[in-house]
């Protein structure tokens, strides 16, 4: 199973690393690309955009620092999901 992770601060990095240690395939994305390096060394892939991570992975976890960070990621030009894949999704409205 492929799991996506958006946001690699203290919690996000630790959670993604734990998934890798337990045999999950993980694709990560972070606004500061260098924060992905340690996880790539552990076997993670890096997505070009948040939307590419969501499209690639069955499950995606967003562990962003605060509401403004979440909104800045949500406001990127590419959509994260569609109503066909997520019932009641608010991000595509």
Could you explain how this protein is built, in words?
It contains four helices and four strands, in the order βαβαβαβα. A four-stranded parallel sheet has the order 3-2-1-4, sandwiched between helices. The model is unreliable at 82-93 (pLDDT under 50). It starts with a strand and ends in a 19-residue tail after the last helix. The chain has 93 residues and is α/β, with parallel strands linked by helices. It is globular and about 30 Å long. It has helices at 10-21, 37-41, 50-56, 67-74; strands at 2-6, 25-29, 45-46, 59-62. It comes from Triticum urartu (Red wild einkorn). Residues 2-76 form the 6-phosphogluconate dehydrogenase NADP-binding domain. Pfam families: NAD_binding_2.
C-alpha Rg (nearest Å): 13 Å
- Name the structural class: alpha/beta
Helical coverage, percent range: 25-40%
| CATH architecture level-2 label | 3-Layer(aba) Sandwich
Number of helical segments? 4
For the record, the CATH class is Alpha Beta
* Unreliable residue runs: 82-93
Name the CATH superfamily assignment: NAD(P)-binding Rossmann-like Domain
Summed up, the domain count is: 1
- State the shape: globular
* Quaternary organization: single chain
Average pLDDT, all residues = 82
* CATH-defined fold name: Rossmann fold
Number of strands: 4
> What percentage of amino acids are in beta strands?
15-25%
> What is the distance, rounded to the nearest whole angstrom, between the alpha carbons of the first and last residues?
29 Å
* Largest sheet data: 4 strands, parallel
Q: Spatial order of the strands in the main sheet? A: 3-2-1-4
């Amino acid at each position: 199973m492929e799991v996506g992770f958006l946001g690699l601060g203290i919690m996000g990095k630790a959670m993604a690393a734990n998934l890798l240690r337990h045999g999950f395939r993980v694709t990560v994305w972070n606004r500061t690309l260098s924060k992905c390096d340690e996880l790539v060394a552990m076997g993670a892939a890096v997505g070009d955009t948040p939307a590419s991570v969501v499209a690639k992975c069955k499950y995606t976890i967003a562990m962003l620092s605060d509401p403004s960070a979440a909104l800045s990621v949500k406001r990127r030009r590419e959509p994260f999901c569609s109503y066909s894949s997520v019932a009641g999704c608010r991000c595509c409205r």
